Amino acid sequence: MISSLRSRLATIALTMVAGIAPATAAQAATNLPAPDADALAKVLADTRAAGAPGAMIRISGHDGVRTEMVAGVRDTVTGAPMDTNARFRIGSVTKTFSAVVLLQLVNEKKIELDVPVNGYLPGLLPDDRITVRHLLTHRSGLADYTNAMFNDTVPGFEAVRNKVFSYDELVKLSLSEPRTTQPGASYQYSNANFVVVGMLIERATGHPVATEYQRRIIEPLQLDHTSYVHPDTRIEGSYIHGYLTPDQAGLPLVDSTEQTVSWAQSAGAMISNAADLNTFTTALLNGKLLPAPLLDQMLTMTPTDATRTRFYGLGLRRYDLSCGTSVYGHTGTVQGFYTYAFTTRDGGRSITAMANTSNRGAANTALSGSLEAAFCGKKNAPMASAPADLAESRS
Ligand code: REY
């Protein structure tokens, strides 16, 4: 089956690195079918057909790497093939790292979830009713300044590619727009929320967020390919080039690899690789980063759309898949990179899927099909048209 698919889809390099390992006791507890390798290969082919130069999927189980698949290239100039070990920009998966640090500070009684943000950062916000929890659940009403910033995609990006913003400047940009909801009233995804989370982390610890990511998450989990280097623009080691799609059809892709990501910072500026993201989501859901009561808070979800299959907790998404399995993690969109990093409730199976393009919804929708293929197994229909409602969006 796999080999016939290979011949049909010549551009796909499919590597079952360790095959499908026998179920361990813990995996059996998840009661998941084997990932559908054909469907995963088709996801990668569809993602490339939709315009991504490359794409990859890495699935990890309790007993180590289970599946690695790549398609296309990580560098369109040299033709270097996509590589599941290489680093890339993870965009808003950063929000889960920020939420973990913040919740550790809650555990240490340095911050409380239901206290007004202005209690910690006096005068920052124009409404004393906005709490720390409202930030983490995207219910503060702080406008997402990035919509205006990137309204015109490539000029918007080039205007900030090398810019270094202070947190205060980003908050001012948000506050120059009307607020989107009364505090707590509705979910409105906004990068401004996690910019303020970064400010809270720095205020409570007296350290840059980079120091806190490092000592609380990166070092304990030995995430050797994960970093927060803002405002440095480079990705160290072996990395994947990101290619931003212009709004106007027919224009060449823009290599957007090097940027400060200062417009996002604690909302989206981290760099990682697929193995590290799988280790991170697994450890988080296994309770290795947060004590149970705080993980429970993170997992307390409300729906983000009318389908009631997509939810948001505290810096964490939940998607309910068609087979009844729920997966937890985050999506990321930063210029040139789409990322999905999700795991099961017991951390028994984790996936990182990425494509090195952005501003190209069809590629993102195709890539989102990797979740059904990875967790729902063969019984599902082929991923020819992944349901649009599972694609990462800003809803
Ligand atoms: C910003 C625009 C996306 C991306 C964003 N990402 O807020 C955060 C996240 C960190 O949720 C850009 N889109 C693109 C445009 C649209 O420029 N005109 O697709 O690269 O991950």
Cofactors and ligands:
glycyl-L-alpha-amino-epsilon-pimelyl-D-alanine
Integer average pLDDT:
91
Low-confidence parts: 1-29, 380-393
Overall outline? globular
**What pattern of helices and strands is seen along the backbone?**
HEHHEEEHHHHHHHHEEEHHEEEEEEEH
Major sheet attributes: 9 strands, antiparallel
Question: Describe it for me?
Answer:
With 395 residues, the chain is α+β, with helices and mostly antiparallel strands. The chain is built from 14 helices and 14 strands. It has helices spanning 2-8, 25-30, 37-49, 93-107, 117-120, 132-136, 146-149, 153-160, 167-175, 191-205, 209-218, 274-285, 292-298, 361-376, and strands spanning 12-15, 54-61, 64-72, 88-89, 243-244, 254-255, 271-272, 302-303, 310-312, 317-320, 326-334, 337-344, 349-355, 357-358. Strand 11 (326-334) and strand 12 form a beta hairpin. The longest helix has 16 residues, at 361-376. The protein is globular and about 55 Å long. The two termini are 37 Å apart. Mean pLDDT is 91; it is low at 1-29 and 380-393. It binds glycyl-L-alpha-amino-epsilon-pimelyl-D-alanine (REY). Glycyl-L-alpha-amino-epsilon-pimelyl-D-alanine is lined by residues 91-92, 146, 150, 153, 156, 191, 244, 264, 267-268, 332-335, 358-359.
Layout of secondary structure:
Elements: H1 2-8, E1 12-15, H2 25-30, H3 37-49, E2 54-61, E3 64-72, E4 88-89, H4 93-107, H5 117-120, H6 132-136, H7 146-149, H8 153-160, H9 167-175, H10 191-205, H11 209-218, E5 243-244, E6 254-255, E7 271-272, H12 274-285, H13 292-298, E8 302-303, E9 310-312, E10 317-320, E11 326-334, E12 337-344, E13 349-355, E14 357-358, H14 361-376
Parallel strand pairs: 5-14
Antiparallel strand pairs: 1-3, 2-3, 2-13, 4-7, 5-6, 8-9, 9-10, 10-11, 11-12, 12-13
The structure holds glycyl-L-alpha-amino-epsilon-pimelyl-D-alanine.
